[in-house]
Amino acid sequence: HVSWMVKKDQLNQDMFLIGPAGAMRRWLALRFCELMQRPMEVVSLTQDTTEADLKQRREIGEGGTAYYVDQPIVTAALRGYVLVLEGLEKAEL
């Protein structure tokens, strides 16, 4: 499985790992990142996850100033990290 992942990475193609419940997919992603020396971001999705939870979060700083904080998906995209989305089957479409 990891060799297939390496080939997909070399072709700059996305990967979608599906399988039975358990930790195997996460283990494969971790092993792939270790082997390729690539950082990763893990996002766990639930039925309550909103679009705002995935992109940016608005926060209020000292003095009442509002600012936006990038969430892990944005961070992964900007920095070229591997993004692992867990619980995709639980997310509402």
Describe the structure.
The protein is of the alpha+beta class and 93 residues long. It contains 4 helices and 4 strands. It has helices at 2-10, 24-36, 51-54, 72-79, and strands at residues 40-44, 56-60, 66-70, 82-86. The strands form 2 sheets. It has a two-stranded parallel sheet. The longest helix is centred in the first third of the chain and has 13 residues, at 24-36. The two termini are 29 Å apart. The relative contact order is 0.18. The model has no long low-confidence stretch (mean pLDDT 87).
What's this model, at a glance?
The chain is of the alpha+beta class and 93 residues long.
Name the descriptors.
93 residues; alpha+beta; two-stranded parallel ribbon; two-stranded antiparallel ribbon; 4 helices; 22% strand
Low-confidence stretches: none
Radius of gyration: 16 Å
| Tally of helical runs | 4
Strand order of the largest sheet: 1-4
Strand content: 15-25%
Secondary structure: helix percent: 25-40%
* Gap between N and C termini: 29 Å
| Element-by-element helix/strand order | HHEHEEHE
In terms of quaternary structure, the protein is single chain
Mean pLDDT: 87
The shape is globular
- Total E-strand runs: 4
Please write out the topology.
Layout: H1 2-10, H2 24-36, E1 40-44, H3 51-54, E2 56-60, E3 66-70, H4 72-79, E4 82-86
Parallel strand pairs: 1-4
Antiparallel strand pairs: 2-3
